[in-house]
Amino acid sequence: MNYDFHKGIHIHYFDRAMTAELEKKISPMIRLLDDTDDSVLAAVRRALISEGKNAIPFLRSAHGVITNKYQKDNILDVIRKIRQNPLFLLREFLENTDKSESFETLEQQVVNLSSFGYPETDPDYIHSFLDKVSLEIHSAYVKNSTTNHLTLLMALNQVFFHKYNFRGTDDHYFNPDQSYLYSLLLNKTGIPISLSVLYMLLAERCGIDMYGVNLPLHFLAYDKESDVYIDVFNSGIMLTKDDCKDFLRKAHIEFRDEMLHRASNQTIIKRMIRNLIIAHQKYGDEWEVHQLKELLNENERAD
Q: Average pLDDT for residues 81-94, to the nearest whole number?
């Protein structure tokens, strides 16, 4: 299964007039991808790559109907070149010795990773969506007769799990869509780490001091004020340290205190990449696996 085309899901950011203008601009270039003149082909490829995510829906659509193998291969190659652009930003982040631990940095890198899987990912849309949801959480919070940390946490859970229906799923657990922010926002299902990151980004906007815990076999969010570990994958169940120990004991893993320490932004992104490597391997997406392995291996060689 080729991940470049196996989904075809889209969040539409453009109005009809803008889409028509883009199609008028991009479609003629796509038709030129069957040109056998190397100079023409190189110029067209550069122009399409420069369009970035704007070109992706048209490229995917054309790939689905064109029968010319030479042209189809060129379309696929352009799509992959566009998808590689975010990898440069991720590589720069992973190699950065400064290692910023801000939630703004985490958000940027999760968006970059999503842009590899789905170049249609729009950072402005995601930032606006998170801002909007955080305001809804605040609105739900102030409606409580008692306003304290617990009712703020309850408001976060009510909006996240019930209004927007974000949830963990055992169905298609290793589908790459469970890890990319683009498809997570669309389908509302994810794996523990992707759901936890989204949950924490909202918590930070609401003034909740929370961080990620890179537990073996699972990923949790830790709420400092209430001293509980939140299992976002399982509808926000609150766990104690002893609960975490018991989980590891049942999995025959020896507990160490550092397992519950704060996960750095780099640790989070690396774990998300490793999860995606496993997921893409299960789908037979060799190109994606190679790109993501190279991204990790280059960083680990530098370490």
A: 95
Residue 100: per-residue pLDDT: 80
Residue type for position 142: V
78 and 179 both lie in a single domain? no
What's the token pair of residue 145? 């007769």
The domain boundary, picked from 55, 84, 113, lies at: 84
68 vs 135: CA distance, rounded Å: 50
What phi and psi, each to the nearest 5 degrees, are found at residue 30?
Answer: -65, -40
Q: Tell me the HSE value of 223 on the side-chain side, using a 13 A CA sphere.
A: 25
pLDDT of res. 166: 98
pTM: predicted TM-score of the whole model, two decimal places:
0.91
Q: How many residues does the chain have?
A: 303
**Does residue 92 sit within a domain?**
no
